[in-house]
Specification:
Number of strands: 0
Largest sheet: none
Helix content: over 70%
Strand content: under 5%
Radius of gyration: 24 Å
Distance between the termini: 6 Å
CATH superfamily of the largest domain: MetI-like
């Protein structure tokens, strides 16, 4: 298994290099001179010359890329042009918020989506199956921002059960933090649970037709043992793949949900950075997002080894 993890990490290194080159090249294609933006409205010639010298803007592009990567290896992701704060500090402030939202949303989605998908597959063709599919398709079809607004009107405005917006750190007030994140997590979790339900149902239907499931039933095993012990474990493999990709997307920032509920997370940070042409922040967020996707894919690969012993032997 150690060799398998090592091979996966070796594959991740050139992936990160290519992503960094792509992000750096896109930043160079954007219109405008970063030195003029950093110099402010007065655009003092001495300030412009200082920034061009400091950030090596007069050097060839490959040399600029080398300095940029070298600074990142030393923990320097640059400064925000808008707030004048280090990019790493901004990421450190916003990332925990998005991680909390992603974890809570994923937890709700797993608890709701996978059992519903399994039940729908087992009860294929019944009223339970039809209802589960209708609910899942509704969850996939309803836009997040509309569902969020409707929940604010119902739960916050009319019923007054939960706060409509804002964020409280769990380290400051755990109970209030859960209250502020409950509705955003439910909005995101509803969509993700629908995707999990559809994938879990499809995988279970495929597994239930396999020879080893028929053999287990022929041996006289109880139906719940066949489903939970023999079928469920193998049906989880495609669901793990989807979960890893979705969790990576959540870490990249649920832009619409964060905007609707005024959550100061990654999504809001990158939207503000793009509108303000804050190049360093955009670069830092994109690289962090790429690392998150690579890590989640590694976690998915490790989960395959746990779920499927044959893959463990092959690794």
């Amino acid at each position: 298994m150690i060799r398998y993890i090592g091979r996966r990490l070796l594959i991740a290194i050139p992936t990160l290099i290519l992503i960094s080159m792509f992000v750096f090249a896109l930043q160079k294609l954007l219109p405008g001179d970063p030195a003029l933006i950093m110099a402010g409205d007065q655009r003092d010639p001495s300030a412009i010359a200082y920034y061009r010298l400091k950030y090596h803007l007069l050097d060839p592009i490959p040399v600029q890329y080398f300095y940029w990567v070298s600074d990142m290896f030393h923990g320097d992701f640059g400064m925000s042009l808008r707030t004048k704060e280090p990019v790493l500090t901004l990421i450190g402030e916003k990332l925990p918020v998005t991680i909390q939202l992603a974890v809570m949303s994923m937890f709700l989605a797993l608890v709701i989506g996978i059992p519903t998908g399994i039940l729908s597959a087992v009860k294929k063709g019944t009223i339970t199956d039809y209802i589960a599919n209708i609910v899942a398709l509704s969850g996939l079809s309803i836009p997040n921002f509309w569902l969020g607004i409707m929940m604010i009107l119902l739960v916050s405005v009319h019923l007054g059960w939960l706060p409509a917006s804002g964020y409280v750190s769990p380290f400051d007030d755990p109970v209030q933090s859960l209250r502020t994140m409950a509705m955003p997590s439910l909005v995101l979790g509803a969509m993700i649970a629908s995707a999990f339900m559809r994938h879990a149902r499809s995988a279970m239907l495929t597994v239930l037709k396999t020879d080893y499931v028929r053999t287990a039933r022929a041996k006289g095993l109880r139906e719940h043992v066949v489903i939970l012990k023999h079928a469920f474990r193998n049906a989880l493999i495609p669901v793990v793949t989807v979960a890893a990709l979705i969790f990576g997307e959540l870490l990249a920032g649920a832009v619409l949900t964060e905007e609707v509920f005024t959550i100061p997370g990654f999504g809001k940070l990158i939207v503000d950075a793009v509108f303000n042409r804050d190049y360093a922040v955009v670069q830092g967020i994109v690289l962090c997002t790429a690392v998150a996707f690579i890590l989640m894919n590694l976690v998915a690969d490790l989960a395959y080894l746990v779920l499927n012993p044959r893959m463990r032997d092959a690794a």
